[in-house]
Design goal:
By secondary structure, this protein is an alpha/beta fold. Helices cover 30% and strands 17% of the residues.
Length: 298
């Protein structure tokens, strides 16, 4: 175990680094932020609780022990409903704006159609966020002030880790709605078709196969049901940073919310302690896996 240092970038991003990094692991929690700008809340008819439905609530707490293990940990303090850093920088829905968007903006893809671009049109339950249309200058300001600082900090952590160890494992942490309730005190009460955890490696392109197999085996050993790539294969962070041939292995992990929280009230369950213990052990084992150069850089 090692002590860690914590610093906040412009009040928007938290970075925790061990005083001496001993694991080639970077942990990212891009959707657990819950600092809602008052000006943003004022633009919506949704209640604060309904706005929070897009959060990966408490995921940052589940993985917060990473620095004490010797790994680096970054999390967004701002909410996903305000800005989503797990997207390309300019994935914007033109119907949300009062003016024509610049030609460099991506305006059509499945994420935008679903209302979940870089600046979302809806929260995860499908309710519209905004009462009025936005200006492009508002979107550009958010991207400059929130999006780019997160990715600059994340890239620096990945680059520093790779420089120190010769490779880096990036664990991008998320949560998924359960679709149904589950009984308490047991990982074995399977929570619907999604299971307990979905690991994504963009169908084998963002992470070494042996490392992915090992991650699956470790999690299954805790009594968790694990699926791979379906229905979550990995978002922008996993796709963008995962370059196994260059020694960067990115895995997206989706935790079933029924494992640790009351989804309607957005409140922790006692089971969060058990999950946190399991994920702490998982990070430690995962960070110690790569000892072969054949795996570190394919």
């Amino acid at each position: 175990m090692t002590s860690d240092t914590n610093f906040v970038i412009k009040g928007k991003i938290s970075v925790k680094k061990p005083r001496k990094q001993t694991l080639p692991l970077v942990v990212s929690s891009p959707h657990s932020g819950r600092n809602y700008p008052s000006t943003f809340v004022a633009t919506s008819n949704l209640t604060p609780l309904r706005l929070r439905s897009s959060e990966d609530s408490f995921v940052d707490e589940v993985f917060d022990f990473a620095p004490k293990l010797g790994a680096s940990f970054i999390k967004a303090l701002f909410p996903r409903a305000f800005l989503d850093v797990n997207r390309q920088p300019f994935e914007l829905d033109p119907s949300m704006f009062s003016e024509r968007l610049p030609d460099f903006v991506t305006t059509q893809n499945s994420r935008i159609s679903a209302g979940l671009g870089t600046i979302a049109r809806v929260v995860s339950n499908g309710e519209q966020i905004y009462t009025d249309k936005l200006t492009f200058s508002e979107a550009e300001a958010r991207i400059n002030d929130f999006y780019w600082p997160y990715h600059r900090a994340l890239k620096a952590l990945v680059d520093d880790t790779k420089k120190e160890f010769g490779y880096c494992i990036l664990l991008d942490c998320h949560s998924m709605p359960s679709g149904q309730s589950r009984s308490k005190n047991s990982y074995r009460s399977s929570a619907g078709r999604l299971g307990d955890i979905v690991l994504g490696d963009c169908y084998g392109t963002s992470c070494n196969k042996e490392l992915m197999n090992s991650a699956t085996e470790i999690l299954s050993g805790y009594g968790l049901s694990v699926r791979r790539n379906i229905p979550y294969a990995g978002g922008f962070i996993t796709r963008n940073y995962g370059k196994p041939r260059e020694g960067v292995h990115a895995i997206q992990i989706e935790l079933n919310r029924a494992l640790y929280m009351d989804e309607k009230r957005i409140e922790r369950l006692d089971e969060i302690k058990l999950l946190t213990k399991s994920m702490t052990d998982f990070m430690n084992v995962l960070g110690n896996l790569l000892t072969s150069n054949d795996i570190a850089a394919e």
